[in-house]
Amino acid sequence: MRFTSSFVCLVTGGTSGIGEGCVRHFAKEGAQVVFCAPGPNDGTALETELNAARPNSALYVPCNMTKPEQIENFVARAVEKFGRIDCLINNAGWHPPHKTIDGFLIDDFRALIDLNVIGVFAACKYALPHIRKVRGSIVNISSLTAVIGQLQATTYVATKGAVTAFTKALAIDEAAHGVRVNAISPGNIFTPLWQQGIDQSPDPKKCREDGDAAQLLGHMGTTEEVAKLALFLAADATFTTGVDNYITAGAELAYGRKTQV
Rounded to whole angstroms, what are the CA distances from 139 to 9, 75, 106, 227? Predict the structure, then answer.
């Protein structure tokens, strides 16, 4: 195991996709993990599974990341249970269905900002007083789309661009406290959300093939691969802060045709 002493990691959106991958990987490496999701029972099965494998290693806290008071409670529960916070992984977020700007409602965009941006801000705000005490770190899950854009995803791309910029600004402020703040920008990582998109596609087989073909390596990444990068940033990258770390298999490389007609 990586962690031989008490190391407490918070993960938002920790019951599915990249968040669940981080919860499982950090727990496997010996960390005590506190994770959240919106529903009252969304994480109870995962909590039970992890605690059966290693007692007192996991705590699930229901939390709607658009409700600041619930985020504050999430942080407080972690400190009450384990006494400290070493790392915060801000993973909670959503990618709306693809539409042109004409199809997005302004109120929908505001709601997405509340989840994808304000939720990240609030989690950092409430966790930092505890993270500073141990000179810990924050890892914000952004997206490669924040840098290269994405077809019919203006609202999502804007929120992830904000997360990346916020990460850099917070890294500057928190360096005085010995706290490192980094971002991870995944490309195509195969998650339940990706599978949902495949299932809803008019041609699921082509949708999956296109998703795999977007990477130079010819396949999507796994949630465990992202979790391993998050663990490196939290535990080993002690001279790294304010960095946007790509995990993309080269999806942003290679000049080629981009027109849609």
Answer: 10, 16, 29, 11
Count of structural domains within the chain? 1
Element (H, E) at 59: strand 58-62
246 is catalytic: no
Q: What backbone phi and psi angles, to 5 degrees, belong to 8?
A: -110, 125
pTM of the model: 0.96
CATH number for the domain spanning 62: value is: 3.40.50.720
Q: How far apart are CA 116 and CA 32, in angstroms?
A: 25
pLDDT in tens, 14-48: 999 999 999 999 999 999 999 999 999 999 999 99
The CA–CA distances, whole Å, from 127 to 119, 191, 234 equal 12, 27, 15
The boundaries of the domain holding residue 25 are 8-191+223-247
Catalytic member of 60, 126, 156, 246: 156
